[in-house]
Design a protein that fits this description.
This protein is α+β, with helices and mostly antiparallel strands. The protein has 3 helices and 2 strands; from the N terminus they run E-E-H-H-H. 42% of the residues lie in helices and 11% in strands. Pfam families: PP-binding (PF00550).
Length: 89
């Protein structure tokens, strides 16, 4: 879970949110993530265009940057990277 504070409110970016963006905005099949949060996106059949869409949505909604090379990362790893980059403690 990633906490990001902007304008006095806290927004949480979760694995579910990453999956939702990839399904609704990047066209991933809804069942591709079933039990696969630890599998790199490229092994799930997602490509760099899907990651570009994810990057745009996450930047727009949360002001966070998805890590470079995210196509080689799993959903869990992306969430961890976002947490490291944007967590406010």
């Amino acid at each position: 879970m990633t906490d990001h504070q902007a304008g006095g409110t806290t927004t949480v970016v979760t694995a579910e949110e990453i999956e939702s963006v990839l399904i609704t905005s990047a066209g991933a099949a809804p069942d591709v993530f079933d039990g696969s949060r630890h599998v790199p996106l490229e092994e799930l059949g997602l490509d760099s265009l899907a990651v570009l869409e994810l990057e745009a949505v996450i930047a727009d909604r949360y002001g966070l940057k998805v890590p470079d090379g995210a196509v080689a990362l799993s959903v869990d790893e992306i969430v961890a990277e976002l947490q490291a980059a944007g967590a406010v403690g």
